[in-house]
Amino acid sequence: MTVISLRSAPVRRGLTLPYAEAGCPSGTPVVFMHGLADSWWSFEPLLRRLPASLHGYAPTQRGHGDADRPRDGYAPDDFASDLVAFLDAVDIDHTLLVGASSGGVPARIVAGGYPDRVSGLVLIGVPSTLADKPALTKMRETVEVFADPVPREFVEDFMAVMASRQVARGLLETMIDESLKLPSYVWRETVRGLMETDLRATLAGILVPTLVIWGDQDDILPRGDQQIILDAIHGSRLHVYEGAGHAVHWEQPERVVADIAAFENHIEHPADPDIP
Questions:
Q1: φ, ψ for residue 260 (rounded to 5)?
Q2: 133-144: per-residue pLDDT in tens?
């Protein structure tokens, strides 16, 4: 398996983001964006399996994991701004962006706003909107009254719905521990930012090649959510993973890596009929 190196990137004054890096230095840069309460660890199963054609970077977003925790700046636009600053900090001019869950929102904001920096976009279990999801409305009500420390039972329940089948030993425990690092205000402000942002509007203006990956046992996002994304992004394609839940990349990392590599190859060689 590929060796993972842990580094840190000062992206602006008072904000340093830890990140994991893996893969062949000559490979195409791929930047992974995690979702709410996760960290770079969310992509450890993928980073370990990267082929020589890909060079992966997985930053931990502000307030999450071991990243710095400013008191504000937790709306999707803030995370998108951090992503651009991260690309600058690690000297990536052009990249394939992979966003999982809510991490796909800042990824697609950057794809739409900085098309010269993005070769393609992969969205793994990403919502088109959250305002119509009763479970998310209930979560917002819960986190609004949180005090520190955040209850472990809440985090365990939150993580329990991410996968529909058993994932790698220790991964779920690691993600619970990473989520417990978030202070209550980061939970509160990040959920508030997601719920108060017009997420459908963040789908506008995306012209880069886009791959949508979705598990048909996702208890958080219905198939209709993915269709909204497909309808909004011209030429986007959908890969449905039968039997997989929300965190497809935890359940089937080998297939996700293979699909990302094939998609990158398609971007490089769009006329090749043998590339799916």
A1: -65, -45
A2: 988 899 999 999
